[in-house]
Amino acid sequence: MIRKLLTLVAFGGAVALVACSDDAGEKYPDTDSFCTAKAKEECAGIAASCATSEDACTAARKPACLQDAGKATGAARNYKAAVAENCLGKTHDLYSAKVPDPTKEDDQQDACERVFAGNKTASQACQSTYECEGSLICDKGFCAEKVLREIDKPCTDAGAICVDNAYCADRGGGQKFCSPKKSKGDICTPDVPCKDDLRCTGTCVDKVGPGGDCTVDADCGTLAPYCEQSTKHCQQKYQAGTTACKAFGGP
Question: What is the annotated signal peptide range for this record (predicted)?
Answer without folding.
Answer: 1-24
